[in-house]
Amino acid sequence: MPTSVPRGAPFLLLPPLLMLSAVLAVPVDRAAPPQEDSQATETPDTGLYYHRYLQEVINVLETDGHFREKLQAANAEDIKSGKLSQELDFVSHNVRTKLDELKRQEVSRLRMLLKAKMDAK
């Protein structure tokens, strides 16, 4: 004696299955993602056209332990007078290579800006 399934029977199972999936779903984490402290450690904008480049150079220089110590020990007058630049001779080769690459990128960016300015005239 075969039993026949009514035509709409599968749709009758749909609402309970949907409710079950909602109950068993992974809870949503509504907590705000932790904010990095990079905002607190970032220096204020200098207003210079090359501020981003300057920040990248400082970040690369801080990867060298010896230079980082000298930078932290230096005061603003040493930096402005160029006394700190003498320590650049003692940075590691890979830091020097990264600095060279950053400089090439910045010069290329400035050339593109100059070309765009000349084309606009």
UniProtKB/TrEMBL annotation:
Q: Which domain of life is it from?
A: Eukaryota
Q: Which residues form a coiled coil?
A: none
NUCB1-like N-terminal domain location: 33-120
**Recorded topology in the membrane:** Peripheral membrane protein
Q: Name one GO cellular component term.
A: extracellular region
Location of the protein in the cell: Cytoplasm; Endomembrane system; Golgi apparatus; Secreted
Keyword tags: Coiled coil, Cytoplasm, Golgi apparatus, Membrane, Phosphoprotein, Repeat, Secreted, Signal
Cleaved signal peptide residues: 1-25
Q: Tell me what this protein is called.
A: Nucleobindin 1
Task: Specify the species.
Answer: Mus musculus (Mouse)
